[in-house]
Amino acid sequence: MKPSTYIEISKSALKQNHDFIQSIMLPDVKFSSVIKGNAYGHGIEVMVPLLEEIGVDHFSVFSGDEALRVKEICSDLSTVMVMGMLTPEQLIWAIEDGVEFYVFDLYRLERTLEIAKKLKTKAKIHLELETGMNRTGLSIEELEKASQLIQENQSHLILKGVCTHFAGAESIANYYRIKSQFIRYKKLIKKLKAEGIEPTLKHVSCSAGTIRYPKTQMDMVRIGIMQYGFFPTKEVMVNYFAENQMVDDPLRRVLSWKSQVMSIKEVKTGEFIGYGTAYFASKDMKIATIPIGYSYGFPRSLTNLGNVLIKQTYAPVVGIVNMNSISVDITDIPEVGIGEMVTIIGRDGELEISVSSFSDISNQVNYELLVRLPDDIPRIVVD
Q1: Per the count of CB atoms within 10 A, which of 28, 144, 208, 333 is most buried?
Q2: What is the radius of gyration, based on Cα positions, of the chain?
């Protein structure tokens, strides 16, 4: 049964993006696929198998909940790394199941040791260092204590990595802050090495860091938004295009969002459309109702501003975006019928509605719009 609205996930676009990212990575740098936020709205259960098909074997998530979803479907050869939240129960599970995770404070390290000793096993940890982001990460003082605990408990801890997170590598305004963070990080790594602590992986770079600061790629990069077909910001894209004398975007959008026409109605001049007086029909109009609304992630702020594509033509949103539906103007689009395909995000013929065009109008960033796409919209793999 065909769903009333669905999201298409393009295998060929994902492969193209992965190939491009590999081309800007330095030799012997490992690729970690960041699939937090339900794989940036694309769907963890859909994306993990597709990523494994193209050779990805390392996945970064935010929470224990996401890690469990990945472990249930990924290959036994793949690594899962939690960068953020673990409840007490999830921490026990992570240690038992060999899931790697960040240690960003002494509380988590001490609790990890307690559990590992009780389970008679080794916990696989990544030390996150505070280098200037001021969010999570071990301070210099905490690092000294952490270093001591690791040295004293090597039978219960495996130091898989030492990492940090850049505070805005996508903007040149943060240039000196990023450079300072990297210098601080390297000094702390040197200090750990002098104490006999050598991690398997050193990793600091996200998508923006990977493309704008290649020397920060270290042993592994954590790639999120670029694998889905988006440069982190327009600034990063323009900078890359200028430096490489490029015109065509090397990235392709993995996600398209489709629906269908539910109803068609004639509206006379002088009538209002939808709730209240938000839209006044200044001429005789033909209106199509589409069964998506703000409960599906279509922003209410696109009232009287958004567009969809029907029969390779823009159809503007008229009236207030409802919870479960929107109305669009099809007056000048001939022969539209019930069940006609509607493109909400993606391409129809030569025209395209991009996530960024949504974002510009609704004052959301690409990331925000994508992760708000509900889990219950079916994801369908194409090409």
Answers
A1: 208
A2: 24
Query: Rounded mean pLDDT of 229-234?
Result: 91
Residue 341: is its pLDDT beyond 90? yes
Kindly state whether residues 131 and 62 are assigned to the same domain.
yes
Torsion angles phi and psi, residue 100, rounded to 5: -85, 150
Answer whether 168's CB lies under 8 Å from 177's CB.
Answer: yes
Domain that holds residue 341: 255-353
Instruction: Evaluate whether 317 touches 302 at the Cβ level (below 8 Å).
Output: yes
Please report, for residues 139, 207, 282, 292, 332, the alpha-carbon distance to residue 285 in angstroms, rounded to integers and kept in the order given: 63, 46, 9, 21, 9
In this prediction, residue 359 carries a pLDDT of 61
Q: Domain of 156: which CATH number?
A: 3.20.20.10
Query: Using an 8 Å Cβ cutoff, are 199 and 213 in contact?
Result: no
Residue 34: strand, helix, or coil: strand
What is the β-pairing status of strands 157-163 and 201-205?
Answer: parallel
pLDDT band at 356 (very low <50, low <70, confident <90, very high): confident
Residue type, 163: C
Whether residue 109 has pLDDT greater than 60? yes
Residue 256 tokens, joined:
């398209």
Asked if residues 144 and 178 have their Cβ atoms less than 8 Å apart, the reply is no
Pick the closest to residue 56 from 27, 40, 35 (CA basis): 35
Calculate mean pLDDT across residues 80-96: 98
Residues 226-232, mean pLDDT to the nearest whole number: 94
pLDDT (mean) for 328-345? 97
What total number of domains does the chain contain?
2
Residues 147 and 289 grouped into a single domain: no
Q: Which amino acid is at 304?
A: N
Same domain, 266 and 122: no
